[in-house]
Amino acid sequence: MKKAILIILLILMLVLSACSSTSPKQTPATEAAATETTATMQSTSATNVNPPFGNPPVGTPPSGAPEANPPIWTSPDKGTGSSNASSGLATATGAYTQNGGIISRANQAYRATIADESAILITNAGTFTLINSAVTTSGNTSSQDNSSFYGLNAGVLATSGSTINLSDSTITTSGTGANGAFVTGSGSSITLTNVTIRAASDGAHAVMATQGGSMTITNVDMITSGGSSSAIATDRGGGTINVTGGSVTTSGANSAGIYSTGNITVTNGTFIASGAEAAVIEGANSITLANTSLTSTYAGKWGVMIYQSMSGDAHGSGGTFTMTGGSLAYTANDGPLFYLTNSMGTIILKGVNVTAASGTLVKASAGNWGNSGSNGGIVTLNADGQTLTGNLVADSISSIATTLENGSTLTGSINSDNNAQTINLTLDGSSTWTVTADSFLTCLTDSSGISGATVTNIIGNGHTVYYVKSTCSVLGGQTYSLKGGGRLEPEQ
């Protein structure tokens, strides 16, 4: 009996030992994994180094162009919705969706084909890095407002504090409202380096920031061809975009090279807009350019516009356009280089090669926005070491104040039809104004250029410059002779 019991105990011990040797070891997690949702991946390559589920290898990806047959991330059969249901994105989906976490990939192809779907959608403070890849979308948006305000249907979309780093890649969109790269929300950011973006349909900007999002762009070439598809843009809630290098071409109606409801800075860029203005500032926002070429060729508009549309997309009044070096041209012969309406605006130019083919440098007047009778433009123009050619024009509810300093020159007339509400000119001793037609100033400030009864830095060419005696006491109601003939005298 005892022998039988011993045999049974021995068998039980052997069984327990076998079970223990085949049990999996419990390995603690070493990093927080992102929540990934991806569509079925169709791969034409033999080996997929970045599998569709789980955390892919993280490290230095291969360099060079995307592989000939990369893995392709495609649209699911049905949209599953986004984890980010913030206003305007409740219907958003992504061929690749990442909810939080940190993931890097290389040599991929992301393709979205259904409505309201992005190729890449990163949410909830996720960080996604992508190199040597192709991003393509073809679906339309269900709401142009949600696409412009929140990025619905964008090719690449970062929201709710997320970060996207994309380099050596392409973004191509063909659907309505399909912006190329879009960032929305404070704390959200996108960095693009050595990327080509092509957006072909209406309402499809190349890059866009809203609701306080930020974007850093280096050596990115952008082409948009649809209507209302400005290449570099911000919208509702504003944003910050910093651009270095690259080229921009826009051809659609109402598609400016730059459209700012926030703060946009460009260094060493090249812009050509053939369907709209070269640049637009709406509200109390800014565009700052350095060593950049900016050209508009579209007839019937203007080169740069500063305005307030009253749509709610931009708050305040008083946009600022600052340009140092480079060139600025409006080549059509029927509009001003600068147009301001229903807003205040500051224009600062330093060493810019300026072309106004129409002969009108600045126009401030009522337009299609705001309340009639109070929707003029109020302009401050500062020229520093600047050569300017063209006329300054304002209507009866608009004003222009111009300062020429540090060797600046202006060749043209000022308020030649005598319609402006107020129009003032300030010259330092090193700057000159060459008058091309009788002109009407509210006041001239030129202490270094007036010697006795002669103005030495205004070349009159036989024309008369009038000023308002009652509001320009500095001139003492006197008449002065101008260099090259002509007079500066009080208006009768």
Throw out a few tags for this protein.
24-stranded mixed sheet, 13-stranded mixed sheet, 2 helices, disordered N terminus
Form type: elongated
Tell me, rounded to a whole number, the average pLDDT: 86
| Low-pLDDT ranges | 1-69, 75-85
Number of helices: 2
Q: What share of residues are in beta strands?
A: 35-45%
Helix content: under 10%
Distance between the termini: 137 Å
Helix-and-strand structural type: mainly beta
Q: Any idea what the radius of gyration is?
A: 31 Å
Characterize the biggest β-sheet: 24 strands, mixed
Give me the count of strands.
Answer: 46
Task: Explain this structure.
The protein has a 24-stranded mixed sheet that branches. It has a domain of 216 residues. It is elongated. By secondary structure, the protein is mainly beta. The chain has two helices and 46 strands. A hairpin with a 2-residue loop joins strand 42 and strand 43. The longest helix is centred in the first third of the chain and has 21 residues.
Layout: helices, strands, pairs:
Layout: H1 2-22, E1 35-38, E2 41-42, E3 72-73, E4 93-99, E5 102-106, E6 109-112, E7 117-123, E8 127-131, E9 134-137, H2 144-150, E10 156-159, E11 163-173, E12 181-184, E13 189-199, E14 207-210, E15 213-218, E16 221-224, E17 232-234, E18 239-244, E19 247-250, E20 258-260, E21 263-267, E22 270-273, E23 279-282, E24 286-290, E25 293-296, E26 304-307, E27 319-324, E28 327-330, E29 338-341, E30 343-350, E31 353-356, E32 360-364, E33 377-384, E34 387-389, E35 391-394, E36 399-405, E37 409-412, E38 422-427, E39 432-435, E40 439-440, E41 443-445, E42 450-451, E43 454-459, E44 464-467, E45 480-483, E46 487-490
Parallel strand pairs: 3-6, 4-7, 5-8, 6-9, 7-10, 8-11, 9-11, 10-12, 11-13, 12-14, 13-15, 13-16, 14-17, 15-18, 16-19, 17-20, 18-21, 19-22, 20-23, 21-24, 22-25, 23-26, 24-27, 25-28, 26-29, 27-30, 28-31, 29-32, 30-33, 32-35, 33-36, 34-37, 36-38, 37-39, 38-41, 39-43, 40-44, 43-45, 44-46
Antiparallel strand pairs: 1-4, 2-3, 42-43, 45-46
